[in-house]
C-alpha cells in the first residue's frame, strides 16, 4: 500500500523534482572513456600519465563531462593530450569497476602525436607484444584483445 501511494505521488511530481530526488538517493559514479589508438604500423599509443603513480603507462583518455557523449569525450581528451585526431572510432567494451564505468574504444590516430598536457610526462608507440611492463594488466589485456582483431 505504501509503495502504491509513493508511486502515485512520484508520478505527479514535476520531472525536474523527480530527477533531483533521484540524484540525491542513487549512488554516484564516474565515467571515463579511453581508446586503443593505433598508427599505420599497427603500434599502440600509450601515455605515461602523472595521475597513474602505480602503473605509469596506459591508454589515453579521461573523464566524460556532464552532457558529453563518450565518443566525443575520448576524441577531446586525446586531442588535448596529444594533438591527434581519431578516425574509424569503434566501441570495444564497457565495464563497471565499483562505482566507475569505463568505456573503451579503438581508432586510428591521425596526425603527429606530441605531449600537450602537464598530466602526461611522455608518450610512445608500442608494438602489441612490447608493452611496458609497468602498464596495468587489465589494459595490457584490452590491447592484446583489440590490436590485430579484425584489422
Structural summary, described in words:
The structure is a single chain. The chain has 151 residues and is an alpha+beta fold. The chain has one domain: Nucleoside Triphosphate Pyrophosphohydrolase (Alpha-Beta Complex). It has a 4-stranded mixed beta sheet with strand order 4-1-6-5, sandwiched between helices. A hairpin with a 7-residue loop joins strand 2 and strand 3. The longest helix has 13 residues. The protein is elongated, with a radius of gyration of 19 Å. It starts with a helix and ends in a 5-residue tail after the last helix. The model has no long low-confidence stretch (mean pLDDT 88).
Quick summary:
This protein has a single domain (28-146), classed as Nucleoside Triphosphate Pyrophosphohydrolase. Helix content is 30%, strand content 34%.
Structural class: alpha+beta
Fraction of residues in β-strands: 25-35%
Number of strands: 7
Task: Kindly report how far apart the N and C termini lie.
Answer: 58 Å
How many discrete domains?
A: 1
Amino acid at each position: 500500500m505504501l509503495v502504491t501511494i509513493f508511486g502515485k505521488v512520484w508520478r505527479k511530481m514535476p520531472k525536474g523534482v523527480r530527477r533531483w530526488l533521484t540524484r540525491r538517493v542513487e549512488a554516484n559514479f564516474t565515467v571515463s572513456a579511453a581508446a586503443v589508438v593505433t598508427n599505420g604500423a599497427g603500434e599502440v599509443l600509450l601515455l605515461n600519465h602523472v595521475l597513474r603513480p602505480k602503473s605509469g603507462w596506459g591508454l589515453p583518455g579521461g573523464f566524460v563531462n556532464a552532457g558529453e557523449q563518450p565518443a566525443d569525450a575520448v576524441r577531446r581528451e586525446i586531442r588535448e593530450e596529444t594533438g591527434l585526431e581519431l578516425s574509424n572510432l569503434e566501441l570495444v567494451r564497457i565495464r563497471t569497476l565499483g562505482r566507475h564505468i569505463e568505456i573503451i574504444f579503438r581508432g586510428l590516430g591521425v596526425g603527429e602525436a606530441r605531449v600537450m598536457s602537464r598530466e602526461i610526462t611522455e608518450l610512445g608507440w608500442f608494438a602489441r607484444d612490447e608493452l611496458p611492463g609497468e602498464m596495468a594488466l587489465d589494459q595490457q589485456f584490452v590491447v592484446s584483445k583489440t590490436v590485430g582483431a579484425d584489422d
